[in-house]
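User: quick one
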Amino acid sequence: MWTYEKKLQYPVKIKNPNPAYAKIIMDQYGGPDGELGAALRYLSQRYSMPSDELKGLLTDIGTEELAHFEMIGAMIYQLTRNLSCEEIKKQGFDAYFVTHTNGVYAAAASGMPWTASYIQTKGDALADLHEDLAAEQKARVTYDNILRLIDDPDIIDPIKFLREREIVHYQRFGEGLRLATDALDCKNYYMYNPSFDIMKKNH
Amino acid sequence: MLNEKTKLMHALSAEQFAAWELHLYLDTHPCDKTAQRMHEKHTARAKELREELEKKYGPLSTKTGEGCDWVKGPWPWEKGE
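Assistant: Done. Structure below.
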């Protein structure tokens, strides 16, 4: 189970609403490499992880991604407060507004709704951990691109924090992959599916 | 200028973050004694700050409060702390 903590992992305090920026940042809320996908990917893949360390690692990183999902939600919320219909039209937020008003919805910057086809659970620890490493890099690039497009320091500060977390998670997943391969035959890592064949043998 | 509650909240977040970073590190280095000691230190400091904050400003988790104290805003995405 999970318990809710009534605070953000890192503070989000944005003084100036800006719906155009909200739309860009939304990519990390419900986009292909966003925080929602990250959380659901790791929290689903953990069931077929072959070792206790890997089960712990995916549980913990998946949990942290939920806190990042909340931070991005807070940013979208704060960027879309007190808007006039003029501002909404001028800043290109009208297409989003007509469907969601200024509610926070999990979609990509393009408006495409979040879909489970962004993520995979392959049921093979090596394949899943490689996806996780790639996911962290893709999220890091999305944050790099957000930083290219946005000049408000109130947004840049928490976005830099989130970008750094992608790099740390990539490092931990790399160590997790090493732990997984260390437990396999170094002459042929692919002789077994460590999540299926070896587990089946043990139980 | 930051008010006292925000300062306390930032101090708690910093200690919690240090403890969490070490927690993730210990997932892949479970026997690292130095990291274990650092984790204990930051966890203990976070506990103190959390107790002080909750005593002064209300519950931070469903385990430490309910009813009027729990539902009272601002909620984390609103308050900008």
